[in-house]
Structure prediction request, 447 residues.
Amino acid sequence: MTASGDTIVAVASGRAAAAIGVVRVSGPAVPGIAATLLGGPPQPRHAHLCMLADATAEPIDQGLVLYFPAPHSYTGEHMLEWQGHGNPRLLQRAAARLAELGARPARAGEFTERAFLNGKLDLAQAEAVADLIASGSDAAARAALRSLDGEFSRRVAALGEGLTRLRVWVEAAIDFAAEEIDFLADARLVELLATLRADLDALFQASRRGTRLAEGLHVVIVGRPNAGKSSLLNALAQREHAIVTELPGTTRDLLTAQVELDGLSLSLTDTAGLREAGDAIEREGIRRARAELARADLGLLVTDDGHAAADAALLAGLPAGAARLVVHNKIDLAGQSPRREDAADGVHLWLSARTGAGLDALRDELRRLAGDGGDGSGGFSARARHLVALAAAQTALDAAASALADGVGEIAAEELRQAQLALDELSGRVSSDDLLGRIFAGFCIGK
Ligand code: GDP
Prediction:
């Protein structure tokens, strides 16, 4: 795929009527189109008041024409923006008129695709544009902005530079085969590799937080029957007007609810009392609950002071990377006040699902775990493909480290090359047309 020589046009504002609407044009024909509209050469970055008329000189709308000469525009090409009244019909007519003057309708994402091809954005930033438009919460928008701003790309680039230094070192060692072992055993080399591995891990974690922001945190509630799991689910859900869906089946089936927590999406699954033994249906319920727990981002155990120690085993099926929260429910019965404690096995919260005491602290905790630090510590608007590429780089680095430890320079060099390829996929430096096609097709028209 290369930057095309033709000029594209699209309505760039939403479909609904609004006070202002925008039509964008990008490509080599833009200066000519602007001159036709304005009756003379356009002034760069100046708002020209203009009566837009069709080919028969019949007025379409009055608005503003803005002209951005290449390369100082979103796409890096000559661009023109028509700002008219936000009536979708008027905007369509304006776009049709601009097309008549020398442009063709843009495909979805084509403006951003051109920005990428002209080096204005890398691939991760281009994706962040789509994520920003689609973001359903302030937290997700903040994450997308961080990516768009290039914070993610800069960290990937820094990792890439570190990898290059390592590769130069290792490949030099191979060339001086006689001294290879000494070169490869250098403590500084091992140290550099360890630092890169740690940085990569931190980036992976931040990206994972980003995907959670986009997809929501998957919380699985476990606990003995009557611990108060359903009550807690409802207390969290009701205030947030969640839709509680009871899956078909028995009462021992799973119950899930989607809860919007200040724009964060949490999916809660009540496991209907994890308990050993029981009849066949109950065993099936337990099996499903375990399977659900294995996919959880967060395991939430509902218990009370008397049972906390014994119930801790119910979280055993939680994956290693998942967070844990222990809720000591029914503090109203014990006459306790809400409180929070950081323990070795996770955060413990004392609350009452019935009175609501301590529920706000639980909401805060869920928000924190969902990755919205609210203080810039949140994630990037990462996508599944980013996580896959970062994980591939991690695997390659680990393999390189063990090859180095074994003194096998050639294998270490190859693994480092694989790690670099994985990182290059993130920026789009190495990417198939197929991948690019899929990414940009996910955009809306006009972006
Ligand atoms: P589950 O089986 O774990 O889903 O438990 P439920 O949510 O059905 O609650 C079991 C019983 O405990 C119900 O009668 C609830 O009303 C009661 N319950 C739940 N939470 C509290 C609480 O915080 N305080 C008190 N006093 N009762 C509660």
